[in-house]
């Protein structure tokens, strides 16, 4: 699934397209939408640079295969290193020269971010060496020797539980450190790319497409009385937005059935809906991609 478009922000013009990644078609090469080639000004670059949000970049060659431009040499390394999976959502922003900024979103609709390395607490082996040398392994159970009756309790370091207390404190501090340094939950997708998927597994879902309330709230997306649905070919349908009696739920109304029939969406189909919002966070369009559908007989 793919789409290309031109977006404007003040004096800045950016050319973008997005792809829904499928392993059987995109693991070794990735096709560039035909409609996007017009932004190359007639001469596509032989090599481009893919740049991720963390600044890391990959050199990828552009080749023409069976009349289509594709990311070829270097793309396989990129897809493997980014651990791309089926239905991952990729957005490519072209700078007009040789660079594409790439954003990757998973099935959950959230930005895919590499997990930071785990933090392991540091243990002072020298401090523990004397203590462990006195531990005795007996049938899988560690035992400590009883304190000697000749030990002077008032002398420094003579308390039989002092070492145990110090070790317990170190372990606790190590656990606290690990808890403090746990990676934060992945932030929700940016507004310009917020999207959701629906599997139409019942006839009821085909009639009532509801907007996820959590997604709208987290991204502060505002809905009007209508919205434009746009398919991968750029064709559009105006659809009304209905609300429940207490206005806590919103769903697609008049116009949805025409879109559904045109795209042959039936029970068993699965679609991806991507919001396009303006500067005021008002949803103007929904980019709809049919990820799987029933073939017409």
UniProtKB/TrEMBL annotation:
Question: Where does this protein reside within or beyond the cell?
Answer: Nucleus
Q: Which SUPFAM superfamilies does the entry mention? A: DNA-binding pseudobarrel domain
Tell me the classification of the organism that encodes this protein: Eukaryota, Viridiplantae, Streptophyta, Embryophyta, Tracheophyta
Database matches in PROSITE patterns: B3 (PS50863)
GO MF annotation terms? DNA binding
Superkingdom of this protein's organism = Eukaryota
This one is known as TF-B3 domain-containing protein
The UniProt entry's GO CC annotations, sorted and at most eight, read: nucleus
Show the segment(s) annotated as Disordered.
Answer: 127-156
Q: Which InterPro entries match?
A: B3_DNA-bd (IPR003340), DNA-bd_pseudobarrel_sf (IPR015300), Plant_B3_domain (IPR050655)
| Entry keywords, A to Z | DNA-binding, Nucleus, Transcription, Transcription regulation
Domain TF-B3 stretches: 15-108, 194-294
Instruction: Return the PANTHER family for the record.
Output: B3 DOMAIN-CONTAINING (PTHR31920), B3 DOMAIN-CONTAINING PROTEIN OS01G0723500-LIKE ISOFORM X1 (PTHR31920:SF149)
